[in-house]
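Researcher: Re-running this chain for the archive, since the previous output was lost when a drive failed. Same request as before.
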Amino acid sequence: MTTWQRVIRPSGLAACVLLLTLAMACPAGAQEEDVAGLDDEGSTATVRDPLKWFNQGVYTVNDRLYFWVLKPAARGYAWAVPQSARQGIANIFTNLGMPRRGVNCLLQGKFKGAATEVGRFAVNTTAGCLGYLDFAEAHCGWQAADEDFGQTLGRYGVGYGFYLTLPVLGPSNPRDTVGQVADAFLDPLYYVLESLPARLCIKAGDQVNRTSLRLGEYEKSKETALNHYVFLREAYTQYRGEQIRR
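Model: Regenerated structure tokens:
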């Protein structure tokens, strides 16, 4: 283990523990910001946003990064690569996400979903050419389970705590931030590639590829929302609550 890893791993673990403690101490229904929304139980509650000044600043930076960096890169990439190839690449990354989805299905007691994930991986890796083709969904009707560790924590009663906007990653909360860190250890790339810059480059490429498949969606949400920051905050909180309740 390098000196950098000795420093970053303990500090990262400490940050995760702190964020998880904050999430558990702040139930989803606690009131801080008078913005209507739905909590994890589906009840009307308020979205806590005590770091609004920070979140709005990060939102502005992320918004600029999208229009100045991500969108131009995605448009150029879409011009150069056919849509069928871009969808195939997205399918490969979805196939590599099987450990995250499968393990979290097991942790939530969704054994059928876990079995489906194993079956999908076996079929798509073989008949689907390493996942390039989603053969399992097209011919077997097996859809990927959209599960992660943030949802697992929510299923066990951990509240979202309060709203966060993360640099580059966007909308989140302490519970989901901890979940993202935990899910990173279920990413095969973490074990295949020792170089952090290499993993980040691949993740960036995946993001550009996926953005190229949904160009215009972000712009449309900005056009229809009176306050885009508030729109993202409410939409994200309600969406995550729905994922946990299902």
